[in-house]
Every structure is written in C-alpha cells, then in structure tokens.
Amino acid sequence: MLAALLAALSSGMWGVADFLGGVASRRAGPTQVLLISYPAGALVLTVVAIWVVPGQLSGEVLLWGVLAGSIGLVSMVLLYRALVQGPMGIVSPVSAVVAGAIPVSIGLARGERLGPAALVGMVGAVLAVFLASRERGMTLAISRTTLFTAIGSGIGIGGFLATIGSAPTESGVWASVISRWWAGLVIVAFLVATSKVRLPARYPWLLVIIVGSLDALANGVFQLAAQQGLLAIVAVIGSLYPATTVVLAWLFLRERLAPAQVVGVVLAIGSAALLATAA
User: Fold this and answer.
1) Residue from 270, 232, 28 nearest 119 by CA
2) Cβ neighbours of residue 93 under 8 Å, at least 6 residues apart?
C-alpha cells in the first residue's frame, strides 16, 4: 500500500509540474525553462537526500544516476516541446501511455508476477490514458510531428522510470539527485557553448523554480515507491499523471474537456485504487 501511495503522490506532482512546465515553456521556451528548473530541482532534492531520506551513496548509484539523468533530459526537452506545439490535454496522455509500457515490460522481464487485480488495474490505466487523450468524436486532435515528439518523450520517460526504479534499494533518493545534477550540468554547458543563455526580460522565475522542485521531488518519491513495491505496478500508477494535467488545463487554460476525457480521468482514479491493493 505504501508503494502505491508514493507512486500516486509522484504521479500528482508530475502532473502539476507538466502543466506548469508547459505554461512556462510557452512564455520562455523549453530549454530556457530547463536551464533554471533543473538546478533548482537538484538543490531541493539534495536537501531531501541529506536531511529527510538519507541513503547510501556508491559508485553504482552514481552510474544509475548519470544514466537516468541523460535519458531524462532528452525526454523532458521533447515533452516540453510537444507541450508547446499541441494541447496539454492530449500531449501528456500520449506520452504517458508509452512511458508506462517500458518499465512494466522490464519489470515483467525480470520476473515480477502480477495478480488478477493488478492486471485489471493496468488495463484500466492504459484505457484511462487513451481516453484522456481523445477529444470529441474520438479524433486525435494533434499534428503528426507533435504526436511523434510526444511518443519520443514517452519512450525517454519510460526509460528514466525504469532506470531510477532499478537503482539500489538502500540508496534512498540519491540516484534521482545525481540524475538531476547531471542533467542540469549538461543543459547549462550546452546552452553556454551555443551562446543560447538568453532569458527573456519577463522570465517566469517563480513558476520555473516551482516546476523544477515538483519534478525533482516527484522523481525522488517515485524512486522510493519502486523500492517498496513492484516496478511494473508503481510505474503504471506513476504514469497516470496526465489525469492531473488534463484537469488543470481544463480549469486554467479552458482547454475543452470532452466526455471521453472525463471518463478517462475517473477511470484513472479507479485504476490507481485497484492497483494500490496489489502493490
């Protein structure tokens, strides 16, 4: 149950971070948002790793963190770009469908066994994300370029989740900390080398710092969830974050919420509850 609760918490935090990150990216650009959000998130998560959830730091954890950070950075650039190009209520669910499938496959491949309740919950979660990505008439209202970008981000996010979830159980959240610092250093070095460190005059500083903090903390919470339960289950619960993004986009951006999307959000909540009993 604890694993499911932690996974659900990470899901909600990712959903809010995606929404706010999309808003910030429309104001300042995806790479400029990541330039500040990644170091900000790294600082916050480092404090958590030292004083709240202490763990063992080792060479193995360092390798997992660097790998996760590299994968995660590419996936976030693609995700924010897709969120700028298309409706948040569609981009986020499409990305999540792909993201949830990868760690589930890896978990099953390494011998995790799922009961009937877990299987039903996983099917419901996939259907929920699918419905949440549809508009009226069940037509996918998104360009081909944006769709491929969202799929690419999903592959990266799935790989990131699988990597973080595979870090040593005694490491606390250090793999997430290292991944965030590594990714932050890479993007800062890239932007400096290409002379693209040009923040807009009205840069949304507070919004970007909140985005970075939420996203980094969600990574750490998910790592703890993976240490407490099966990767295949916690990954599916974690991938339900589009439900939060869809609702926020509807509330604050007035993006149309079709009946199918409403069903998807409700089904996502039910699926998470069912998976919680099997975690």
Assistant:
1) 232
2) 129, 130, 132, 133, 242, 245, 246, 264
DSSP assignment of 13-71 equals HHHHHHHHHHHHHHHH-HHHHHHHHHHHHHHHHHHIIIIIS-----HHHHHHHHHHHHH
* Residue 45: both structure tokens together: 């998560």
**Strand ranges, E, within the chain:** none
What does pLDDT average to in each consecutive run of 10 residues of the chain (279 residues)?
90 92 87 90 96 92 95 87 78 76 79 77 76 56 80 90 90 95 91 81 93 96 92 84 82 78 78 68
Q: What range does the domain containing 20 cover?
A: 2-278
Q: Is 134 helix (H, G, I), strand (E, B) or coil?
A: coil
Question: pLDDT by residue (tens digit) across 60-110?
Answer: 999 999 999 999 889 988 988 887 887 766 777 778 777 877 887 788 787
Q: How many domains does the chain have?
A: 1
Cα–Cα distance measured from residue 78 to residue 181, given in angstroms and rounded to the nearest whole number: 19
- CB under 8 Å to 108, separation ≥6 — which residues? 114, 232
Radius of gyration of the chain (CA): 17
Q: Are 65 and 182 in contact (CB under 8 A)?
A: yes
Tell me how far apart the alpha carbons of residues 33 and 254 are, in angstroms, rounded to a whole number: 23
Mean model confidence pLDDT for the chain: 85
Token pair for residue 16?
Answer: 């809010």
**To which residue do tokens 């699988």 refer?**
162
Q: How far is CA 81 from the centre of its chain?
A: 15
Please answer whether residues 164 and 176 qualify as being in contact, where contact means their C-beta atoms are separated by less than 8 angstroms: yes
Cβ contacts of 201 within 8 Å, gap of 6 or more: none
